Amino acid sequence: MAYGENKIVRVIKGRRPKIVVIGGGTGLPVILNALKEQNAEITAIVTVADDGGSSGAIRNYINVVPPGDIRNVLVSLSDIPQAEKEIFQYRFNSSDNFFAGHAIGNLIIAALNEMRGNIFDAVQALSKMMHVDGRIFPASNEPLTLNAEFVDGTIQAGETEITSKDKRIKRVWVTDSDSDQTPEAVLPVLAAIMQADAVVLGPGSLFTSILPNLMIPNLGQAVRETKAEVIYICNIMTQQGETDHFTAADHVRVINEHLGGHYIDTALVNGAQIDMSKFNPADYDAYLEPVTMDFKGLREQDCRVITSDFIDQHSGLVFHDGKKVADEILNLAFEAYSRRKQES
């Protein structure tokens, strides 16, 4: 059987809908996998400002763009057998002192980065090896450092250090970890955004997975200039140290403030009831409360709102239902394509 031969085919006048998804974290692969099943033409633009866990340790040792989010996206878009994906995702246990905590895929990405000379070419090579259906682009070819200013005026560098402060963040920006040069996205990243039918932000940590990408100056400018529908997938739950007590409008407002205008066209916001009794109290440090709707606040930002039951709740945690979200994204992509054709 050929890879992907059972996929549903959805086309826009003879071509697949072009969807660019920008972000990082554990929620991103859920959406990508659902869009892949809908046969969208996917470009995933992945954050490179992570400095925690295995990614952070590898980055410190060999000064490579952190590979963790890239690894998860590769697996979500790959058509290789599940057994091979599990090998790529395998993480050594704590008894293996030298490899403790490292995922095999992270080591492979780091090795290819060294062989190819940069992370962009490394990911393209690995995408071919893993039969990836779509394109995966690191947001930058260089490792970036996330910086934050808190509402009390203090400043902190480093994703892990920022979130550990447990203080309200006012703004974030990124710097090149190795030089004083302005961070840049490579041309294929910019071209993908400009040619897309829909540009999707999230789901993911607002300040540490979504905004670091948009703070790369030329990438943020592309999002401001694209004719695509710019969609924000609002997080289902608030996140300690980042979005405590945020409403959906607060999330959109922060993105718009960082972009310098009203650039979010549509927000997808969960409207279903969350059964908080399923939560283990030990998880409350990561998932504090459901994100509440604020229609008035969203309308004030010229943002269309689509609210529905977007959740898949199991195992005491809450996740986005990938298929439901992907259906809405594709509908918006078709609308944007039709609108562009009428205007041209």
From TrEMBL:
InterPro entries: CofD, CofD-like_dom_sf, Gluconeogen_factor. It comes from the Bacteria. One of its GO terms (cellular component) is cytoplasm. It is found in: Cytoplasm. CDD domains: YvcK_like. Coiled coil: none annotated. Keywords: Cytoplasm. The keyword Lipoprotein does not apply. NCBIfam families: CofD_related. Belongs to the gluconeogenesis factor family. HAMAP family: Gluconeogen_factor. This is Putative gluconeogenesis factor. It comes from Lactobacillus hominis DSM 23910 = CRBIP 24.179. The lineage of its organism: Bacteria, Bacillati, Bacillota, Bacilli, Lactobacillales.
